[in-house]
Amino acid sequence: MSHVAKREWQRFTPHERAVRYGVYLVTAIAFSIALRSIEIVPEFLRDTPAQVADLLVRMWPVDWGFLWSTVVAAMVETIHIATLGTLATLLIAFPLGVLAARNIVASPAVRFAAKLCLVASRSVNSLVWALFFVAVFGPGALAGTVAITFRSIGFVGKLLGEALEEVAPGPVEAIVAVGAPWPSVLLKGYWPQVKPAFLSIALLRWDINVRESSVLGLVGAGGIGLVLDSAINVFQWRAVAAVLVAIAIVVLLAEVMVTFLRKQII
Amino acid sequence: MDALTRRAAGRTAFPAAWGPRLRWLRDVYGGRILAVAVIGYAAYAASTLGFTPARFWRGLEHGGLFVSRLFPPDFASRWSDIQHDMLESLEIAILASVFGILASLPLGLLAARNLMPAYVTWPVRLLISVSRSFHPVIVGILFVKAIGFGPLAGVLTLAVASVGFIGKLFTEAIEEISLKQVEAVRATGASFPNVLIFGVLPQVTARFVGFSVYQLDSNLRNSTILGIVGAGGIGGTLLAAFQRFDYSIVCAIVLVMIGLIMVGEILSEQVRKLFQ
Amino acid sequence: MWGVRSRPSGRETGHPHEPRRLGDTSLGGFTLQVQDLTKCYTADRPVLRGVSLTLDSEGITIVIGPSGAGKSTLLRCINRLVEPTSGRILFKGTDLVALHGQTLRECRRRIGMVFQEFNLVERLSVIENLLSGRLGYVSPWRAWLRKFPEGDIARAFELLDQLGLSEFAAKRADALSGGQRQRVGIGRALMQEPELLLADEPTSSLDPKTSVEIMETMASLARQRHIPVIVNMHDVNLAKRFADRVVGMTDGRVVFDGKADDLATEELSAIYGGEEWMR
Asked: What value does the mean pLDDT of chain A take?
């Protein structure tokens, strides 16, 4: 009978374990520091469920009259803001996405500049863009639409750039080999392959923009946000409830529409 | 469809019945109809919203003036405020993410229709749906009005948003697992928790980590602006500076915000790769 | 250990509940006694029609029959992965049909199962898959931290050696070939130290050569450990080669029960219908 040496089994290599512990440790430290230094009054925390319940009670029953009189028009404006903003984005983000694609543009400097624009656009929240443009264009839907545009460019441009980089080189090479000028190469070589991705990204961003547009009015950039803001400021909670219902319905319808249209494309 | 194919399709006869007729129209003229529709809509919407070229030009002039007032960014005069509020936004994001992630794990499991009976999944799925219905800013305002200004409202808002986002995706991931692996673990006589640990979780952990990291990043972005509605963090400072027309400070704050978000993006990429 | 822990189920046919007795083979020393087992998925189409079977010793019993005969359902009823509609299944004296919850799990861990599609947890390593056979014996906390008892880990490595898979211990299960995965599946079942081994079409997803290897592995390991095996398969020649006993099923009923040598053309016709396929 042979002696079998006792074998150890370890789930992770020492390196993996060190790294995992590292991450947990950092998270735990960050959490405890955050917990201790945040200025939260414990009494308020304990009070929270009761206060939230109180607010919800004040919102019932929903003020349906308010819905028809004011909300619908504002909601339509919100949708216009989202849609126009998305359309404008597509016009600007497409060339930027092309400029950022590794397989289309050779110069790293140009690509870097394009990527920088896209990152900057993404890193500033649409609400902050809205603050800017309200200062520039004055309050109203124009500021909101431009804000949506500027925020979406980063999102659409990045995804578009990635889609362009994943294009199969074969058909493109074939067109280049024929001696076609570069607009034709773009149109016949790249466009057919990225078209489904492009439409899908556009729909996705439109869906997100509908949600974003609904809050821009809070800083004066038009849409339902203005109505919401006024209702909250005068403590008309039942009217607020009506606005929330309208927003929820529109967001839901937008999602359904987007899902349907995406199936058509694929 | 490109021009050549369109022309070829167009040479076929205009069909008699309505169904094929509509499809023929779509194939041959589809692109052009869409283009016209889009331009038409854009023009209509623009006029409804009151966009006139005059307004636009005036805006651009104004914009030029505005941008000149932004630069150079003033980091010095209110640096301690900016620092304090930026840290507060970071704290809000961390706390909300931890609570949200911890809550989504059990909630996501409870909402999975292939693991739990209907009377459990329905209410939990409803809860998760409601949590993601509204933009965090709106949820933020409601919490502020309910429990008062300050970071508590911010933490609660983003925790709710996290549960809504991670919860939904996690449940979808669980519903896509191979039940055969689960069946085999059950056959060994394992208790329900053990079946979850060995049969379900290994199939979904990588994706859960991915969602969590994404949400942490998203929370970081949102926490910076929740202050605009009073839920704590740098957003409040930003709004105050705007209202004071103190644009060079606005610029400083926005640059700090961008910096933080970019660092967050890079870190989250790294962590995601680690847990792959 | 005494005392009735099972709840009456609506499917009971009124038999008295029996107290749990570990290792009691007083009913004539039978490991497994299936009595009048019936299973209907829909009211009018029974998949199992009053099947009765007795298993009294170690050895390989192979169940053959056409698709839809109920072979797989029979096996899955034994460890209650499928709920029988009526009948009794006595496993060393305990009626499995009457058990629920904790007691059912305790009985299940004494029965190992090997699956047609291996059913390994793909993202876990081979050693973790083997150890999952012990999940009926560890607490969730230990399972989470992978703190299995040392004896279990040592046994797992021994089994890996016997299965010829030592170099794959830390590899992810989905990195293995079909035959290798099935060996891990057999290992997992054996890690339970079962008193009965069930195998549901273990070779149907494998090529002929690997099928024979798997059957050899399973047969030798089971014989070594004195564990009776019930296998179900549709390859008659493979069955004849490895079976100590053959059970033929058709349309939810047992139509043949005897030695492999007694399985001639007539009997095969009765089981499968027609003779053309035998030429």
From this structure: 86
pLDDT band at A78 (very low <50, low <70, confident <90, very high): very high
Answer positive or negative: Cα dihedral of A177, A181, A186, A188. negative
Asked whether residue B32 falls in the same domain as residue B147, the answer is no
B66 lies in some domain: no
CA-based nearest residue in chain C for residue B276: C123
Check A7 against C157: CB less than 8 A apart: yes
Across the A:C interface, residue pairs with CB atoms under 8 Å apart total: 18
Q: Which of A46, A57, A127 has the most B C-beta neighbours within 10 Å, making it the best mutation to test the interface with B?
A: A127
B185/C136 Cα distance (integer angstroms)? 9
By residue range, what is the domain housing residue B205?
A: 79-274
Largest Cα span, chain C: 57
The distance of A175 to chain C (nearest Cα, Å) reads 41
Section B18-47 average pLDDT? 81
pLDDT of residue C2: 33
Strand partners, C256: C248
Alpha-carbon torsion A165, A169, A174, A178, what sign?
positive
Residues in chain C: 279
Parallel, antiparallel, or unpaired: how do β-strands C32-42 and C60-64 relate? unpaired
Angle, to 10 degrees, between the axis of helix A42-58 and the axis of helix B136-147?
Answer: 110
Could you give the CA distance from residue C106 to residue C94 in angstroms, rounded to a whole number? 11
Q: How many C-beta neighbours within 10 Å does residue B127 have?
A: 16
Check residue C3 and give its pLDDT: 33
Q: What is the pLDDT of residue C6?
A: 40
CATH match of A59-265 with 1.10.3720.10: yes
Asked casually if ipTM beats, i.e. exceeds, 0.85, the reply is no
Interatomic CA distance for residues B195 and A114, integer angstroms? 50
Which domains are delineated in chain C?
Answer: 58-79+101-268 (3.40.50.300)
- d(CA B208, CA A70) in angstroms, rounded, equals 42
Q: Which residues of B sit within 8 Å Cβ distance of C?
A: 178, 180-181, 183-191, 193-195, 197-199, 202-203, 205-206
- Taking the CA of residue A11 and the nearest CA in chain C, the distance in Å comes to 8
Nearest to A147 by CA among A200, A198, A197, A78: A78
Rounded Cα–Cα distance for residues B143 and B27 (Å): 51
